[in-house]
Specification:
DNA-binding; two-stranded antiparallel ribbon; globular; Arc Repressor Mutant, subunit A; five-stranded mixed beta sheet; 12 helices; alpha+beta; Nonspecific Lipid-transfer Protein, Chain A; homodimer
DNA sequence: CAGTATCCGATGCGATACTG
DNA sequence: CAGTATCGCATCGGATACTG
């Protein structure tokens, strides 16, 4: 980054200089979520190019935000936030709270599409709340325009320690059908709406296994910010 | 801004999309300081071009961060933060605190030069703590390399309601001589150091009127964050 | 004072291809 | 898996000149 500095005597501007370059905060958020591997970070922040991610990580390492740890035994490389980056949590929480309470839901979620929502859903699954047996949940996004892949299958296998999500029919019997829109599901996860609310408004339909349907609010976590007062609700 | 959106279901990224465009936060800070006029904002954020400031203000107005109020009587135009922008204060405070406590002072102030420091000094003057009579304080910056204008005169006139600052000799008798460096004075204002401390370390010398020298910690305010614990001190 | 209009340059960034 | 290397463009933004 040979970005021109602001050159002000002001701690906020200093923070801006460090945090403003594109993807910096998203990378930190991803590390915060526990991701440590290059390609996982890449997917997590949404298709940043390898070249740019590589550069950013180096820059962030130079700034003391990120630590790169190479495991000589396995040859793998993990990235972690430094103390300095962890200390950003209060600021990032404040930003999240601001966005949730001050930006209207429809604007906030205007960019939501099926695939990105499902990527978030994947992270929000509470595995322990899903049945021990094999179970298949199919999400159907009825958005306009229709997404490239309108269907997603969430497959729980008894042996696995995490459910699979795929956009191509795995050819299994489906236990629970979820019919919704990307914005509605996104709003539920962000805490701007709720499963109940979206069902009432006719934007979420569950059919199939009644147990799975009833426990959806347990096996699908909502954002940690969902409990905030004053979130701008999706009408 | 046709800036490519992040496209993530994440309130932090949403905040980033709104706040990351260059100068956005600096403009908000300036409005926060009470500045309302176009050219004052311009100077306050440090020579942003008129074209860009104009565009940014429009964008921020469209985003609901800024309100533009035209006084039909006088024809003047004032800008104010909206409620939405005021609600950013906790986040901006958190960022300031982070930068002060986690970024080393020498890096934080590496861009400090005499003219920008004096611009901040101007805002930090507590007029009521200066004598009622005419008084002249001369700042001499002994930086390396020497600044374009190494001297600044702060002139208090009995009638005026605010002191003048100029970089050309007004030709008055000087009451107090302040000899220092841009980094030292910047550090004092940011609360990374103190008048006492810089005097002890030989980076600040006061000579002339003993009363003015003694009261410097009253007529020169320090940042509101100066009281924070754990600020990285300028050794 | 409060901007427009224009121009141009740097570079940030994305896309793709390729490597150990 | 974890990157490098290259390319090319869009756009962001700085400088300057000009206007009501």
């Amino acid at each position: 980054m040979t970005r021109r500095p602001y050159g002000l005597i002001c701690p906020i501007s200093l923070a801006c200089e460090i945090l403003e370059p594109r993807w910096t905060i998203q990378i930190l958020t991803e590390l915060w979520n526990g991701t440590t591997r290059f390609n996982d970070i890449r997917k997590g922040v949404g298709n940043i190019s390898t070249a740019l991610l590589s550069r950013r990580l180096k820059e962030m390492e130079a700034l003391g935000l990120v630590e790169r740890i190479e495991d000589n035994a396995t040859g793998t490389i993990d990235y972690f936030r430094t103390e300095k980056a962890i200390n950003l949590e209060p600021a990032m929480n404040a930003l999240a709270e601001w966005a949730l309470c001050n930006i209207e839901a429809d604007i906030a979620l205007s960019g939501a599409d099926a695939s990105t929502v499902m990527w978030v859903v994947r992270r929000m699954i509470v595995f322990a709340e899903l049945p021990r047996r094999r179970a298949v949940i199919r999400f159907h996004f009825r958005d306009d325009p229709p997404p490239k892949y309108p269907h997603y299958w969430l497959v729980v296998e008894p042996g696995a320690d995490f459910p699979e999500i795929c956009s191509l029919d795995p050819g299994r019997d489906v236990d629970l059908y979820v019919e919704t829109g990307a914005v509605s599901l996104g709003a539920i996860i962000e805490g701007r709406s709720s499963i109940e609310r979206e069902k009432e408004r006719g934007r979420l339909f569950l059919s199939g296994d009644p147990g799975l349907a009833r426990s959806m609010d347990r096996w699908l976590r909502t954002s940690v910010y969902a409990a905030l007062e004053g979130i701008d609700q999706l009408s």
